[in-house]
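User: I'm putting together a teaching handout on how sequence relates to shape, and I'd like one worked example. Could you take Short-chain dehydrogenases/reductase from Clohesyomyces aquaticus, show the sequence you're using, and then write out its predicted structure as tokens right after it?

Assistant: Happy to. First the sequence, then the structure tokens directly below it.
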Amino acid sequence: MVALDIVKASNTKLPSHLVAVFVGGTSGIGEYALKSFARHCQFPRAYFIGRSQKSADRILSELKTTNANGEYTFRQADTSLIKNVDKVCEELKSKEKHINILFLTTGTLASGQETAEGLHAAASLIIHSRTRFIVNLLPLLRAAPDLRRVVSTLCGTLEGPFANEDFQARNVSLMKARGQGASAVTLSLETVAKAAPEVSFVHDFPGPVRSNIARDSGFVPMLMKWVFKIFGPFIFIPNEESGERHLYLATSARYPPPIGGASGVPVDDGASIANGTDGKPGSGVYSVDQVCESGVKNVDVLKKLRTEGWDKKLWKHIQGEYVRITGKESIN
């Protein structure tokens, strides 16, 4: 466990100027991380993308009160659509020469909903859309000084087997979909990391956090609303702690890239570098739990998946959908 006081101490040492993009930043984990970023970075420049203009207006007001030195830009978009992701990325590339942090939290508990582009909406948000943001913005991440980091929040350390080659989990049970989805996020990060060893990638499990994940219609979201209402006050991680821990994951040199030296805030003497998903310290891709610790059991799970070729099958599927929808594997 990384103690909260260590997390907070690290967050007070951020570089004075950082550029960050928060995809899914109008509620829950993304909002808390965005606010923590504004609180601790002296001159932050933050872009946040989401569906709710009303929520964005509230957050913008709060950000300006927290840190008037910051620049904050909201872009309203339904990022379950790959073409919308491309539009947002084109705008970002026209405005910025580099990005230090790409923070991704989009998701839904609703199942069975299809996007206009023919993707299962749940899978699009956690796999196709997130990966599209990463590959589109990778040149800006690789160009950044001081820090180059991608954080994707879902079910880090809870990776499991693939039920079959139904990568969009249209016909996969909820419990199996969790492990399969976690593996899909981690394996896709590992694939991208091979082309960008100067960038580090973190897939984390946030633990129980108050969020808007159950906002959509359907039996599972409705059930979770009642679960959150009854048990939430007893189990939820405080909003501020969630924000602090996710900012730590996004900025601490405990999770460095394998080359390049742009690792973020140096760790204190005696603190160990985190183990990557291959079980080796500092290898560049990290799957961590709600207290910022690397997984152990998932290392063997992921090794088995790679041996069986699931990483390559998954990537072929992702790229095939991109080409089908947009005609190209990325905007670069």
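A couple of points you could highlight for students: The first strand starts at residue 17 and ends at 23. DSSP finds ten helices and seven strands in the chain.
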